[in-house]
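notes to self, project folder thing:

trying the whole complex as one job this time. last attempt i did each chain seperately and stitching them together was a nightmare. two parts in total, labels are on each line so i dont mix them up again. if this works i'll redo the older ones the same way
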Amino acid sequence: MYFYENLKLTLFDILKLMSQQKILRNKGFEKKKFNVETSSNSDFGDISTNIAMVYWKDSVFNLYEFAENIKEKLLKKSDIEMVEIKNPGFINIFLKKSFIQNQLKLVQINKIKKVSNKKKINIEYVSANPTGLMHVGHARGAVLGDSLANLLKSVGHDVVKEYYINDAGKQIEFLKDTILFHKNNKKKKYKDDFLKNLYPGEYLEKVSENISTDLFTNENLENSEEIKKNAVNYILKDIKKDLKDIGVHHDVFVSEKEISTDTQVKNIISILKKKKLVYEGFQDKPKGIDKKNWIKKKQLLFKSKLLNDDSDRALIKPNGDLTYFMSDIIYHGKKIEKKYDILINIWGKDHSGYVARLENAIKSAFNEDFKLKVKLTALVNLIKDNKVLKMSKRQGTYITLRDVLKEVGKDALRFMMISRSSDKVLDFDFDLIKSRNKDNPVFYVQYAHARCCSINKIANQIFEEKITKKELDFSLLNLPEEISLIKLLCLFNKNIELAVESYEPNKLTNYLYELSKNFHSYWSLGTLNSGKRILVEKNIKLSSARLGLVNGVKKIISQGLKILDISSPSSM
RNA sequence: GGCCCCGUAGCUCAGCUGGAUAGAGCAACUGCCUUCUAAGCAGUAGGUCGUACGUUCGAAUCGUACCGGGGUCGCCA
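result (full assembly):
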């Protein structure tokens, strides 16, 4: 247990004691929350807490007396050197140096802390339509979902990673049309008179070549379905290959077509009917944009107006097909059947208006006790020569994930994709990502790890077997930079926890960057002052202790990068 | 117009389960390599945290309203 966790328990004990001593009047103190934070400023000690400001009103004392009482009790602890009370009521705790130094022993054997309440979690991500190759936008969701899944697993949750294949509906119809077009117009140029509702780009031409010509000779329904199936399978294979190349693996692939059976549809409709949430009717005309071709048609609608939507939403298209909304209700129903505690969906931000609707629908249909968390990812701007690369799906000029990957590599791609919080537009700058210097955060972190490895090699050369690995004397680590590096290492687990709780892997990349920065800074002390070099030739004990610290850094960086599925190179 | 997201240094962003003097990186300027990877480090300068009001001992953080930017609002997914 690291020092800040320790202190928190100590403070809880003190509260209990104060309750016994009738200093605290109410027993409800456990409900209130107080902070135990590592101090931002060394004037404020190693640990600061607002405990006195939170609880003094529940006590027989005034704020100052209350804080003093806590201070007295804290000073009885052997690990604490000094306690100061500062306005407007903070208690600042200064720990004994030896206590902090010995925290490094915990770092050496650091294991990521498991959660006490293990959850069954389903995370659905990527789910790119199988109508073409993935682009960087998909990659953002892919890496976010994958890193998040790894994080959740690392703290002990039971995680299933899922890909929902949209292999039904109009998009797939367009895909088939496009394939047919290529088959029938093989030699004709199609750029100029390109038809609406066909997918552009050369890729699908290649796909069409890989589909048996026999299917095209007579156009019947059966063959048509077969073409769709073959095309989807072909494209899906490519998508899976790309995902594999960026280290993304799903446990389950669910086909929209397969789960949306007639019985399922009837089932859902009858459930919703019982709850009086559906009716045959006319949808409101969409607001905002002028819709000249708006035609009223009768269809099955979900009463989402009752649930704060501004319009009721269609479940069945006038032609009898399912809307994607309906398919999604069925799909989520399937997931809910499997008794997950938490359902996580990673979607592009263009679906933001849809989140509440779906959540309302499935909560009212299934009444189950589960938590739905939809994470939305904002756009990715590809930047080259300080210019945003314009992409147009219509003209088929979008840049595919595999092109980007070829250029920057998996590690850089993964790191960059989660280096910003997901709801902010991400600038993906090729020049930056490919640079081998500190401008590039991926490089910077990996370089810190490589330096740690390098110093180990040199230590072995200089000291041979004399360098100790066990029973290091950490009391020799007295530089302020060493102390703060140790404290920072202790915060790794805390940052994992934060990343998990907020579903934000970028908290981990931020931490790793921060740690690397501190390490590079520590390393460089030696260039000015040879006594501050990590390896001091005439002092094996000191060198060993410092090497212990370096290896702590190495361990934490590699643990962090492993969760993100990014390599930790031993030399660069 | 409704809903969702964003607004922090010239630029890109951390910080947001309320805490003390708001932090990094880039760009600018000044320094540091005969010595462990200078692929690096140190320093200077740069801010009414979009605006206003409110809650609070305390607000970048919470609430309300407004301003600016983006997304979305069919039977596309």
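what i see at first glance: The two ends of chain A are 34 Å apart (CA to CA).
need to look closer tmrw
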